[in-house]
Amino acid sequence: MLIIALACWLVIYNIFYISITKRIKQYGQLRAIGATKRQIKQLVLYEGKNLSRKYIPIGVIFGCLMSWILSGFHWNAVPSFSLAFLAGLLTKVTVRASLNAPSKFASRISPITAIRHVDADVNTKKEKRNSKRLTPFSLAALNLSRSRKKTVLTLLSLFLSGTLFVSLGTLLNSVDPISKAEKYFPNHGRFDIQINNELYSEATSLSDLQTEGQLSTSLKNKILAINEVEDVIEHQYIEAAIEGIKTDDGAAIVSIENIPTLNNERWSSHLAEGKIPDVDSSDASYILLNSASSDLDYYGAHYAVGDHISFIIANDQEKVKHDFEIIGDITDKNSGTSFYLPPKVMQTVAPFNSNKSYEVITMDKSNEELIKSELEGVILNEDTLKLLSFSEVVESNRIAFRTITISVYSFMVFIAVFSMINLLNTIITTISARKGELGLMQAIGMSRKQLMAMLTYETGFLVVGSFTMALFTGNLMGYMISKSAGNMGGLSYIQYQFPWSAIFLYFLVILLVQTGMVQFVRRSISKQSIIEQLN
Known about the structure:
Layout: H1 2-22, H2 24-32, H3 37-70, H4 77-107, H5 111-116, H6 136-146, H7 148-173, H8 177-181, E1 191-195, H9 206-211, H10 217-224, E2 229-247, E3 250-258, H11 265-268, E4 271-274, E5 286-290, H12 294-299, E6 308-314, E7 319-330, E8 339-341, H13 343-349, E9 355-362, H14 368-378, E10 385-389, H15 390-433, H16 435-443, H17 448-486, H18 500-526, H19 530-534
Parallel strand pairs: 3-8, 5-7
Antiparallel strand pairs: 1-9, 1-10, 2-3, 2-6, 2-9, 4-7, 5-8, 6-7
């Protein structure tokens, strides 16, 4: 919303600034017949208020209609009317802020200034004489430089939308749905049979579901008996309360997982201090800490290697207490797990089956559809279990990211429309204000082709210049955002990728805009003869 407000501010500011520069002589005449600075300022502000009264309600009603359609034709009156009021208020405040500088500029115009006014910024510095031959290119550069404020405002608006497009395009391109899915399949399995988290409730905890023992050795053997199944990896998980820590919600509940039995080289690279217990150990005296866990931060609990900690592990039938010494510390932000134990110890300390899921590893080039069908048959009568397929999780992630991508690009198109309005407004007012000047240029020998080339270069400077700046700045911002997001907990699947597709799309849009502007300028110039332009 802040970005939209900034885009609105730029457009409104630019439109009123250009409008005032076109009417400087009118304001000078009003000053000459007795209008005060305050009255001139109020006149400009009244124009904005008048437009706001007419069109903000229309915009709010249209926004409500769009919201109603997007929400499946459902309407919740109280929050909807509240948001509509806030949207209208935000727009009104934005318009008022946008008019502040133009109204002050108009109020400072004196009758003498109006008489001497030329639609250009005056350069008071002494300049050297330049005998360089004039060309359409050099004339375009001169015309843009003499109205610096208009040029900068238009360039800034185009630059803002371009930077947003490239930076957000970079972020979206850096999201890897496969990497996100691998979080559920750390051993590169193709299926995962797990306790159904949809059954969790205030009355039913994970430990209650684990107590039913459906992830049993018997089930594991049935899975291993399926043709083309290579291995089944147990994932153990316990929710435990830290003794001695109380919160407003009750006990401080943290997670304990088993130390990975396979592919743990990358996982163990997070070790910051101490050592990792042996994966085959049955010693229930030591535990491994993950100091980067968000749960520990939430409870304000801080531990180090050598500290002792006590846990209460319970279900609705039994409660046990275990004391551990912290033997090592890993810092893995991508894992929400607070502590790790060897698999054998996990089964020892829990008064129930600590298995949370079975990761099913299949042979290369296996028939996944057939395996999936057999796995569904194996768990058909197991009420608390559900089956996840790696390919389905990847596809689900792709659909989710596709929806986000469409939403983000729609937002960027909306911002780009403001930039196009700014550019179009600048071109229209430039041609209108310089009508006599353009006619004079043709009268002294400038051909229609040269005139068109000059005006094309002017739009090209703005469009191509903003594209070049946005390409560099947007990619740099996208890189920084992707890197920062990738280092956050749970977002390791965001890794910077150069946004070839986004940049190619942006280039096509810029090409279409430039072509459209050239055609618009050509038609505007061709409508009037030299005599009509001079008059």
